[in-house]
Amino acid sequence: MPLDPIYDGSEYGTVTMYVTVDQYIPLRIDYHDRDKVIFKFLSLAKTMEKNGRIIPIRYDMLNIKDGTVTILSFLKFEENIRFQGEIFRPEKLGE
């Protein structure tokens, strides 16, 4: 699924998301620059199943441009946390 940025100031030209057909679980996300060249990608490296749901517990990000790898692992999480949807609006990020 190719996704184009909503805002003109985005550093990404396009984001391509690869998902499973049945549940839309993101397996890989390619980040393209404005010239449509992939400069980093995020891969789902590990999942767990809990109560019939597949939960991602490790992501690997490879930054091709910088030659770096970032690994994000979730060791534990609280399932009953609720967030206000407003905090995820682009103008609120970074506050």
CATH fold call? outer membrane lipoprotein receptor (LolB), chain A
Number of domains: 1
CATH architecture classification name: Clam
Identify the CATH homologous superfamily.
Lipoprotein localisation LolA/LolB/LppX
Describe what you observe in this structure.
The protein has 95 residues and is mainly β. It has one domain: Lipoprotein localisation LolA/LolB/LppX (outer membrane lipoprotein receptor (LolB), chain A), CATH 2.50.20.10. It has no helices and 6 strands. It has strands at residues 2-3, 14-19, 26-32, 38-50, 53-63, 68-73. A 6-stranded antiparallel β-sheet has the order 1-2-3-4-5-6, with no helix packed on it. The radius of gyration is 15 Å and the shape is globular. The two termini are 30 Å apart.
Label this structure with key terms.
globular; 47% strand; single chain; 95 residues; 6-stranded antiparallel beta sheet; outer membrane lipoprotein receptor (LolB), chain A; 0% helix; mainly beta
In short:
This protein is mostly beta strands and 95 residues long. The chain contains no helices and six strands. Helix content is 0%, strand content 47%.
Secondary structure elements and pairings:
Layout: E1 2-3, E2 14-19, E3 26-32, E4 38-50, E5 53-63, E6 68-73
Antiparallel strand pairs: 1-2, 2-3, 3-4, 4-5, 5-6
